[in-house]
Write a structure and sequence with these properties.
Distance between the termini: 24 Å
Radius of gyration: 21 Å
Helix content: 55-70%
Keywords: Membrane, Transmembrane, Transmembrane helix
Structural class: mainly alpha
Strand content: under 5%
Organism: Niallia alba
Shape: elongated
Number of strands: 0
Oligomer: single chain
Largest sheet: none
Number of domains: 1
Pfam families: DUF212 (PF02681)
InterPro entries: DUF212
Protein name: Divergent PAP2 family protein
């Protein structure tokens, strides 16, 4: 596997890991399950694509097709993470609240219908713009560090 893929995967893993202490700072509750969930601060989508784009820019240069492809696809991923996926998450919040609303409407009626409670839909799908920005900044940092570390290894091997 090439070094750019390693840098991006490390960046994604780091973003997922950082969600746990950041969530703790906000809520005073540890939730290790956040490591395997989407959404939250920082965005691992943004971290992954921005670290790869940064790595490519430093390794191959900005005038290359590699950089152009990585940048454009990265921007699409980040836009999607905070746009469409965020809207889906907000819609899911509304759908999850519908059951409570129906219960309130039907409190006066005596209905013999027994319905199974469906599982709540996952509400944390997309990202707030600051979560996308946080992931992008983390990714740029990790892409830069990845480039520096692989550059040092390369120059060491040529001695």
């Amino acid at each position: 596997m090439n070094k750019g893929v390693y840098v991006a995967l490390i960046s994604i893993g780091m973003a997922q890991f950082l969600k746990i202490p950041i969530h703790f700072l906000k809520t005073k509750k540890w939730d290790k399950g956040l490591f395997f969930q989407t959404g939250g601060m920082p965005s691992s989508h943004s971290a992954g694509v921005s670290s790869l784009t940064t790595f490519i820019a430093l390794k191959r240069g900005m005038p290359t097709i590699d950089f152009a492809l990585s940048l454009i696809y990265g921007l699409i991923v980040m836009y999607d993470a905070q746009g469409i996926r965020r809207q889906t998450g907000e819609l899911t919040l509304k759908v999850n609240d519908l059951g409570d609303l129906v219960d309130k409407i039907n409190t006066d009626k005596n209905i013999a219908f027994k319905e199974k409670q469906p599982k709540k839909l996952k509400e944390m799908l997309g990202h707030q713009p600051q979560e996308v920005l946080g992931g992008a900044l983390l990714g740029i940092l990790i892409g830069f560090l990845g480039h520096i570390l692989t550059k040092k290894k390369r120059s060491f091997l040529h001695r």
